[in-house]
Amino acid sequence: MKPLRRTLILSAAVIAASFGLGGQVLAQAKEPLRFGLAMPLTGSQALFGADQAKAAQWAVEDINAKGGIDGHKLEMILLDTQADPRLGINAVNRLVNVDKVPVFGTAWSAVVKAVAPIANRSEVLALSVGANSPEIAKLGDYVYTTYPLADVDVVAQARYARETLKKERAAVLYIHNDSGVEGAKIYRDAFEKMGGKVVSYEAYDAQSTDYTGALLKVRTSNADIIHIQGLVSDLPQVIAQLRQLGLKQPISTYSAGYNPKIIAQLGAAAEGLLVSALAPSAEQNPRIAEFVERWKKAENRIPNGLPYTQYLYDMPYLIGELYGHLLKTKQPLTGPNMRKALVEVANFDLPMTGKLTVGADHRVNKPVYLFEVKGGQFVPVATVQ
Amino acid sequence: MEYVASMLVLVGLYIILASSFNLIIGFGGLISIAHPIFFALGAYTVGVLSVKFGVHPVLSVIAGFFVALVASFALSLPSLRISGDYLLITSIGFQLGLLEIIKNLDFVGGASGLGGIPNVVSGQRNLVFAGVSLGVALIVVLAVRALVRGPYGRAIKAMRDDELAFLALGRNAMNIKIAIFALGSGMAGVAGGLYAYYYQYVTPDQFQILQSAMILTMVVVGGMGSVLGPVVGAVLLLLLPEAITFLNLPSGIMGPLQGVIFTSLVILFLFLRPQGLIAPAKRVEGGH
């Protein structure tokens, strides 16, 4: 029995090793241009991370199908972070030290913060694509975001509630993690600065599935509007429970709520929900309608967290432009040059999310599109520049 | 090389964690799973001391050791009067409760985590940290070995195997339990301190139940109650998922494969080798 087991283990190892060798890409005529992507492909956030990674994969295929960048193929190295900072660090260590990429993308605020020191120390450009913690702008020279941080759309949402809807009393409900805590604080400060009053400020735990305690406190506060800073994964549940408890006030949230899945999951409970989007909708940009069609064809469903997948689809295009800039100006393809290219190019026009300007202050500014759910559709109500 | 060194840092840290946890659970027979909270306390102690007060790294890590050691009394004094399942439940509560408190403390960064921990090593950073963490790991393993092979170790095992007989001999089991718990927790605090300096960012999310499961798996797979078991377990469980990423499998397969690796290992070991990879030396079999 023993020798047999040993043989089995050995043969498994041999097979695994041969897979590894066989999987290596053959050298091409022109060196491929590589970049890394570290996303949650497993774990609690995989539902969204995997779709975002797929969108980036599609973009790489589309770019290569059109001849790549200046005749070079673009190549993406995809690693799993499980949205866990420790695994994110492992993944980025590998991308930087083994794969030697000059630029990589990642998301989820805790992961972005955890890998920032590595990017700064190794002088490799880190692009945060979808995390919105305002602290991301201050993580160091090599960390840039391609996604507007919470202060952009959350402030727009507070302004709309206070100035257009004339709401006096707001309740703020947030998930107790970094993005929730920071986003809620921004909403509260903005709403109070405009003369409103925040009458309830409640957190719910990231791991819980029942939010009754926090919601009852919100109910007793008698607010005119309820703003939720949650994650794509828990928003539908929170809104459904709010409505079940008989709260009829308008509910607003930020870009995590701009997601066709929310309407599908909530049905009638989604009516009147105010969301912001940081990317134009299918009505405003025909390419997005095609993009959604492509999902339906390939996966028989709409993507989880559509706006995020739009940003992820655009990321390889942005990196491609940086590579193109360096090739044109005949500069070595290093991390410091990548960073320089990002600052020099600064203005991008991307297929899914439109114009993007990367500022020297590590922030991006974009118009915020506000939508309200009416008749099971996101209907544009305002655009805040 | 840099990458290998960065993995070795982790290996060293987890050897410290798994060995010290093995001291508590494997030798002491105290079923607690709150080990990551002491890891967290060490990390946060270093974070606060270095960011807010600029304390010397060596002193901060030593402080991490003592903070974790002292905090262990908060769990051990009330709960070691009970044992088995009750201790398990208390320890879960202790870990989650303390993490919630950390999440609500603004001066340690709350839910956003604590960043800006200074980089104390410049040049060959990964290699230096790998050396330090493996060095400390070696000291911890040797210390555990010396402890359990000496007369005190015999008392610990006697207490674990038959507490009633042990008490009948007039020995004080409570003191031994508290001492083991404090020492094991203090070691986890040291690992936390090194972790904070290496990663320069700590967040409460890193010390959740998943972390408990990981350290527990290392001890179980390696061999509970043996000195080298946790070392083998830590190396195996850290390097295996990393090795898989080099197989260049499509992400559709890679994701799930990494997800099931821990689960399947535990199940396999429970059936094939319940004593773990390395069986404890001279364990008395049979007779209950």
TrEMBL record, chain A:
Pfam families per record: Peripla_BP_6
Gene3D superfamilies associated with the record: 3.40.50.2300
One GO BP: amino acid transport
SUPFAM superfamilies in the record: Periplasmic binding protein-like I (SSF53822)
Domain Leucine-binding protein: 32-376
InterPro entries hit by this protein: BCAA_transport, Leu-bd, Leu_Ile_Val-bd, Peripla_BP_I
Keywords linked to the UniProt accession: Amino-acid transport, Signal, Transport
Family according to the record: Belongs to the leucine-binding protein family.
Descriptive protein name: ABC transporter substrate-binding protein
Species this protein is from: Pigmentiphaga aceris
Automatic annotation (TrEMBL), chain B:
Superkingdom of this protein's organism: Bacteria
Cell location: Cell membrane
Bilayer disposition of the protein: Multi-pass membrane protein
Assigned GO CC terms: plasma membrane
Pfam family, one: BPD_transp_2
Membrane-crossing segments per the record: 7-27, 33-51, 58-77, 127-148, 178-198, 210-240, 252-272
CDD domains registered for this protein in UniProt: TM_PBP1_LivM_like
GO molecular function annotations of the record: branched-chain amino acid transmembrane transporter activity
Keyword annotations of the record: Cell membrane, Membrane, Transmembrane, Transmembrane helix
Annotated InterPro entries: ABC_transp_permease (IPR001851), LivM-like (IPR043428)
Protein's name in the database: Branched-chain amino acid ABC transporter permease
Species of the source: Pigmentiphaga aceris
